[in-house]
Amino acid sequence: MRVICWSLGALLASAGSLSAGPLAPPVGPVSPTLKTLNEVEPSTPVNATNTPGDDDAVFVISQPGPYHLTADVAGQAGKDGIQILADGVTLDLRGFSVRGVPGSLRGIADQDPDDFQSRRDIRVLNGSITDWGDVGLSLGATARARVESVNVESSSATGIFTGRESVVVGCTSTDNSFSGFILGEASVAIGCSSSFNGSRGFSTGQTCSVQNCAAYDNDSEGFSAGNGTVLTGCTSYRDQGGGFSSSGASALGCVVRDCGDDGFAGLAVKGCRVLNPERWAYNCSHIIDCTASGGEVGAYQAQFVSGSSFNGCDVGIWAVFDGAVIQECRVSSTVGDAILVANKGRISGCLISNAGEEGIQGGDGLEISNCVVDGAGARGIFANDGANIWNCTVRNSVANAIQARTSCRIAQCVIEDIGGAGISVQNVADIRECVVKSTTLDGIFAGETSLVSGCTLNNCAQAGIVVTFQSTVVGNRLDFITPGVATDSAILATGSRNRIDGNSISRCDWGISTGAGGNVIINNSVSTASQGPFNVMGTNVMGPWLDFNGIFNTPHPQANFTH
Hints:
By secondary structure, this protein is mostly beta strands. It is 2% helix and 45% strand.
């Protein structure tokens, strides 16, 4: 290995060969070395020399390029403040104000009264516009306008008005006689606020994006959005005309509080919250993962509601259009119905508690599955013709737990602690594998041409199962049926042509009773009947009643047993 050594002398000699500059400063004052803002980015001052006014405006910018204010601009009666009559203009207010006077017109505008040309690429930045007799900042004829950090106040019309494809960032618009912001189609607003305006907070054209904006204390809606617009993370507070309205926009993660009308109207809504509106949502196509508290109606004219919660509304969900879908929702503490739907609605996985009236009420052809109704001031579930109800639980309803009209199917439902009947269906019912406990009226009532099979009933204060005409009661278990009416029993057939087959009955007054002849009663067992195993009227076809004394075989294949 080769080692190179440097001597101290050599290092000193090398250092001595270097010459130092003069230590004395130059004679005279020290001048700045930084460039001015105009030297870095040349800009033209707005003044009478560079941008002279005319009969229509105090100042007129007629050539493209950057411009800036050097002082406040004072308005004049009958004139605009600054007119921008060229494309590609940037106007930096530099913290100054464009201030109107009584009788003045627009603060900053992109057209004069005789000039109706479209503009593009105008930017207005960093200042305030106040007290104008018309629109504060009027760029409605400009495509691709950009407005940043501008505050508009007390205009006699709209605060900030932009054309299509514009961007508005970090601006405020307050106390204007009309809307705070009007944005052309395909525009973007970010981080803006609009308050105390005489109309809407924000009004947009189609396919806009409004992000993290706030509207409050406006006389109309907080946000009125065009079709295809997306509103994200926005807030509406105390806007008298409602929170958000549209005919096809979407709201994501937005909040409405204490608004005077609808929280959301005509939008698809996801992840939003509403507190104390008159109606939570009106005619919204989709409501997903939202929460609402208070108000007249939670969701009115809803078409698809999923994963949402409604608390303390007069009515929770009111779907007036056919075919509505409501799934995985929670509705609690309503004054009236919790969920009210039209024909062919589908309701699944919903949890309802403390409904003031019906838990679920609907029209023809409903499908109701995997729902829980715990506490209803009237019926738990009520449906019209053709309902299909399965795997539902109803507890603590004041009236009937499940009530339907004709041609309905009810399967695998659990019912308990009911102030009326457990299940009551008019005609052509198919009731299977349900559990009914503790009712003050009949456990199950099924009209003519019905089937009741595989059900379990316990502690019914009137009859356990009641059928009328040409129905089948087969394979059910009934226990502790103590009707308050002497003619009732565990199973009661009020008419004829009914088949009562293979049922197991225990701890009752009467086991099986009929109100007419012409019924078939076979293969049943009755134990501990205080009045007797059967009480039949007229001529019926019955298997023999045999006392069960430990003999498991009987020569009669259709015998009934008592023990």
